[in-house]
Amino acid sequence: MAKISINIKEATIEKSEIIAGIDLGTTNSLIAFVNKESGHPECIKEDGVNSLVPSLVHFDPEGNVIVGSRARTYLVSDPSRTIYSVKRLMGKSYKDVRDHESYFGYKIIDEDDDKLVKIRVDNKFYTPIELSSLILLELKQRAEKVLSNEVKKVVITVPAYFNDAQRQATRDAGKLAGLEVLRIINEPTAASLAYGIGLDKNEKKTIAVYDLGGGTFDISILRIHDGIFEVLSTNGDTYLGGDDFDRAIVDSWLQKNQVSPERLSDKSFSQAMRLQAEEAKVYLSVHDSYEGKHDTLNCNITRTEFESITHHLIDKTMVCVKKALKDAKLDASAIDSVVMVGGATRIPSVKKMVSDFFGKPVYDKLNPDEVVALGAAIQADVLAGNQKDILLLDVTPLSLGIETVGELMDVIIPRNSKIPTSAARQYTTSVDGQSKLKIAVYQGERDVVKDNRKLAEFILTGIPAMPAGLPKIEISFILNADGILKVRAKELRSGVVQSIEVKPQYGLTDVEVEKMLLDSITHARDDMQIRAVLEAQTEASQVLQSAEKFLRLNSALLSEEEMASMRSHMKALEQVLTGNDKDLIHLRLDELNSYTAPFAHRAMDAAIASAMKGKKV
Ligand code: ADP
Ligand code: MG
Questions:
Q1: Residue 4 gets which letter from DSSP?
Q2: CA 603 – ligand 2 centroid, Å
Q3: How far apart are CA 361 and CA 358, in angstroms?
Q4: Exposure winner among 41, 70, 182, 547, fewest CB in 10 A?
C-alpha cells in the first residue's frame, strides 16, 4: 500500500506540472501557486492587481453564466438569478438551512427536509456542487490565462469544521470543473503553512487561527507536531462577519439622517448604502475619519464612532475564542502563535482585541485575504514533491465505497485519505419489510458503479421487518496500515451484523490505478450529469410511491377534483421519469410536491382529531 501511493505520486505528477492551491470562500475565492523561480507562493491576479474572485454566479435569461466581480451588479438588479454564499449550502439539506432562508435572495427548494438542497433559477435546478464548480472553473481559467499553462491538479481548502459530506461535495465540485483534487485541507492549516508554521518537522507548537471573513467567523486551535496538524477545537459563528460591520455603519447613517430603516426594503437603496458602508469601513482601517454623501444623505463616520458601534461584534467573536480554548482545555497563555485570517481582520480594533487577549502580537504580515490560498499553494508544492524535507503520509490511491440506489457509487473513504483510516455512514431500506440488504464494495472514482472496480459483495440478512426507511444500517470501512479493508454492516436497531475483509490493491498494477484516475477525470462531466439524472429519477419514483400510498390511505380527505388533479400531476411526473432531462423531472416533482403539500397538513390534522376522539376525558 505504502509503495503504491508513492508510485502514484511520482507517476502522475511530472516535474514541470503546476499544482495550484484554491481558497473556495463564502465571499471571495482565490487561486495561488508556488513560483518556480522565487520558490514563494503567489496569488493569481487579474490585470496584475486583484486576486479576489467574488464567489458569485449569475445566470442571465439567455442561460449564460457570469462568475466573479462581473456578477456583482446583478445582486441588486437581478437577485433571483444571482447566487452568493453557495458555500453555506455545500453538503446541506433544507432542514439545515431553513432557519436562515431569508438570508438568501434566491430560491432554495424546500420540498424535502432531508434531501440535499437545490437552487432553482427559472426552470433549471442547480446543486451547490454545480454552482461551486462554476467558481472553480473561473479560477482555473484565470490561472491558465496568466500562467499560459494548463492547471489540472489542485488542493482546495475548507473550514476545519466541515463534515464528510461537505468535504465530499467540495471534491465533487472540483471534479466537475475538470480538476483533480489532490487534497482537501483545513483553512487554518493552510493559513499557518503560509506563515511557515509547521513546515519544520521538529516543530511543536499550539496555535490559534482567528478568521473573520465577510459573513462567517471561525476560530481554530491547532496542535502541530511531527509535521501533523491536529485540530484540537473549533468554534465560531456562521452568521457573523465583515458584513455585520457594514450593516452597523448603515444603521448609524440612517439614524444620523433621520431616515426610517424601512427605506432599506428598497433593494437598490439598501445595496448602495451597503457598498458605501463597506468603502467607509475599509477606509477607516487606515484613516481616522471617512466623509461621504449619498444623494442628500450625509455619510460621515469617524473611527471612534465606528469602534463604538461595532464593539459588540468583536466581543461576540471573543466569546467563541474562549469557548474554543475551553474545549481544547487550554489557557490563552498556552497559545504560542496567533494567526489572523480574513479581510475583516484588517480592522485595527479587531487586531487589538485579539492581541490583547492572547497577550502577544498577532501574525498579520501576510495579506489576510490571501493567506489561506497561499498556504494551499504551499501544500500543493509539497505534494508535487518540490519540498523534499517534508513528511508525506501514506494515502489510499483510489476511493472506496458502496453501491447505492440507482447503481451509484457512494464514496466512504475518499482517495488520498491518510492510512490507517476508518469511516462509517448510515443507510436504510427502500422497501417495507425488507429483510436483506446487498452490500457491494467498489473502488474507483467514477460515479456509476459499473465503471468502477468491484471488490466484494455480501448480504446482510435477518433485518427485522420494519417499514421502509426505519432500519438504521451502519456501513463502516476500516482500512488498516497494511491496506486491508474491513467492511462491516450493522443494523443498529436489532444489532444484526455481518462483515468481510478485502485487499483493495490486490491484482492492480500502478499503471492500472493511474488509468482509473485518468478515466475519472476525462469522464467527470458526463458522470456528474448521469448521476444527476439517476438521482432525480430515484427521487421521483420514491415520491410517486409515497403519493400512491397517500391516495390509498387518505382518499376520504380529498375531493374528486383534488384526486383527479393529483393523479394528473403524478402522471405528468411519470411521463418524464425515464427521460434524461433532470431539470424537467425536478420541475414536475416540484409541481407535484407543491400541489400535495396542503394535503399532508390535512392528513395530519385528521390524524390528531381522530386520536383526540378516542381519548376519554
Ligand atoms: P470570506 O473568507 O468569507 O470569503 P474574506 O476573507 O475575503 O471573506 O473577507 C471579506 C470581508 O473582509 C468583507 O466583509 C470585506 O469588507 C472585509 N475587508 C476587506 N478589506 C478590508 C479592510 N481593509 N478593512 C476592513 N475590512 C475589510
Ligand atoms: Mg475565508
A1: H
A2: 46
A3: 8
A4: 70
Structure pTM? 0.70
Q: Is 152 a catalytic residue?
A: no
Ligand 1, pocket-test mutation among 22, 23, 24, 28, most atoms within 8 A of CB:
28
Kindly give the pairing relationship between strand 107-108 and strand 82-83: unpaired
Closest CA to 538 of 115, 97, 108, 93: 115
Query: Is 267 known to be catalytic?
Result: no
For 255-283, the pLDDT digits (tens) are 999 999 999 888 778 888 998 999 999 99
User: How, if at all, do strands 289-290 and 301-302 pair?
Assistant: antiparallel
CA distance 507 to 504: 9
Question: Quick one: DSSP state of residue 488?
Answer: E
Q: Is the CB of 278 under 6 A from ligand 1?
A: yes
Between strands 180-186 and 153-158, the pairing is parallel
> CB-based burial of residue 195 (10 Å sphere; 0-12 exposed, 13-18 middle, 19+ buried)?
buried
Cis before 420 (ω within 30): yes
User: And the C-alpha cell for 609?
Assistant: 382529531
Ligand 1 atom 13, closest CA:
214
**Which position has the grid cell 475551553?**
326
- 23 as an active site residue: the answer is yes
Q: How far is the CA of 213 from the centre of ligand 1 (A)?
A: 5
| DSSP states of 110-146 | -S-TTSBP-EEETTEEE-HHHHHHHHHHHHHHHHHHH
- Cα(first)–Cα(last) distance of the chain, in Å? 69
Q: Which residue has the CA at smallest separation from atom 20 of ligand 1?
A: 343
Residues facing 400 on adjacent strands = 413, 443
Q: Is the CB of 216 under 6 A from ligand 1?
A: yes
Domains of the chain with bracketed CATH: 13-195+367-383 (3.30.420.40), 201-365 (3.30.420.40), 400-521 (2.60.34.10), 526-612 (1.20.1270.10)
Q: Is 277 in the pocket of ligand 1 (CB under 6 A)?
A: no
The DSSP string of 9-29 is HHHH--TT--EEEEEE-SSEE
Ligand 1 neighbour 174 (Cβ under 6 A): no
Contacts of residue 469, defined as CB under 8 A and 6 or more positions apart, other chains included, come to: 428, 429, 430
pLDDT digits (tens, 9 = 90+) for 307-349: 999 999 999 999 999 999 999 999 999 999 999 999 999 999 9
Active site residue 281: no
